[in-house]
């Protein structure tokens, strides 16, 4: 946990120092020595003020003399002064032009460097990205046609040209997952999450892979992140995996809640019969025999693979046997 910040101290104010070098506000000296010192200080200040006044008077006299000299000398002085001012202005303009030229040269150099960098941007890298996009399109087409092997090789080719392409990583991982190669799929999902760690959907897919690998701790952590990052976590497949995870942990109440949520979100979920069978087992262990019996009877004519009708009849018989006890 984070520690709280220290509060600002408010009761430690110090008395400010006295004004005028230590004298009190009234300016009254405390003894004769202080009075003498004060008088000497005042005399010194008066002498300084007198000297400043004399200096100002001399400066005014010099200014008047210069003005008279200029008036007596005629327009020659004025012309010379104007010429000097014009020369100074011309020099300033030349300096400004030089500075502007230097700035233009610097900008031109920067543009040239930027163009060189773009030219160095790997024409090969640009070509590789284009090639990777082409292979991704080929893979998607093959996948839509049910050609999983062609899709697999196409996505693999895309990654050879762009090893850090998250889309290619996820598509290849999805293909391996569809082939039940969960370890390879998990490795690819992890690589993709290095680039987009807030992708909740990818976290959910990674959790499913770990679940199939029976790595329950990693599956639990991945599902947690999926629920955290997903804006809308109401995804039936996600909750189906979470239900299986809790079932394997032996947390029957949480498993029941997750499975019921799947059926609420999608009553026609493709693995609905499997969920009914799992719920029947959970209810039987919880002693909820009537709900268990209803679940088993519901799937009797269409048991989930790889179960058969005899497997379901066995569970029905077990429930009836428990009812008689």
Architecture blueprint of SSEs:
Layout: H1 32-73, H2 75-120, H3 123-144, H4 148-161, H5 166-178, H6 182-195, H7 200-212, H8 216-229, H9 236-249, H10 252-265, H11 272-286, H12 289-298, H13 309-324
Describe this structure in words.
This protein is mostly helical. It has a domain at 234-324: Tetratricopeptide repeat domain (Serine Threonine Protein Phosphatase 5, Tetratricopeptide repeat, Alpha Horseshoe), CATH 1.25.40.10. 76% of the residues lie in helices and 0% in strands. The protein contains 13 helices and no strands. The chain has helices at 32-73, 75-120, 123-144, 148-161, 166-178, 182-195, 200-212, 216-229, 236-249, 252-265, 272-286, 289-298, 309-324. The chain is elongated, with a radius of gyration of 45 Å. It starts with 31 loop residues before the first helix and ends with a helix. Its main location: nucleus. Residues 79-120 form a coiled coil. InterPro entries: Corepressor-Demethylase, TPR-like_helical_dom_sf, TPR_rpt. One of its GO terms (biological process) is negative regulation of transcription by RNA polymerase II. Keywords: Coiled coil, Nucleus, TPR repeat.
Give the tags:
single chain; 325 residues; mainly alpha; Serine Threonine Protein Phosphatase 5, Tetratricopeptide repeat; 13 helices; elongated; disordered N terminus
Question: Helix-strand pattern, N to C?
Answer: HHHHHHHHHHHHH
> What is the percentage of strand-forming residues?
under 5%
CATH topology value of the domain at 234-324: Serine Threonine Protein Phosphatase 5, Tetratricopeptide repeat
Shape: elongated
Distance between the termini: 53 Å
Top-tier CATH class of the domain at 234-324: Mainly Alpha
Region (Disordered): 1-54
Pfam families: TPR_12, TPR_8
Main location: nucleus
InterPro entries: Corepressor-Demethylase, TPR-like_helical_dom_sf, TPR_rpt
